Amino acid sequence: MKEQKRRREVADLRKGGGEFLGFENDAAKTMLYKLGRLLQIFGLIVLPTAIAGNLAPEPQGIDLGTSLKLSALGVMVFGLGYLLQQKGRR
User: For residues 9 and 70, what is the distance between their CA atoms, to the nearest angstrom?
Assistant: First the structure.
């Protein structure tokens, strides 16, 4: 009986991840959604900027390694924003 009760508690935690993390009200979910969208926009701005920086003439441009690092940063920020947006939607 005790084991069955413990399983139910774990199942309840899996269902309500937002409540478990402390995001149980609508204002916090809205904030998560908007923060996620902001990070997505930032990631979408960083990525083409990094590519354009690599294509710029040599004195003002950046090298390939820096361009790839900035591109990876843009993709990671966009991915984090996507995950936060999805968390705020539920």
Answer: 43
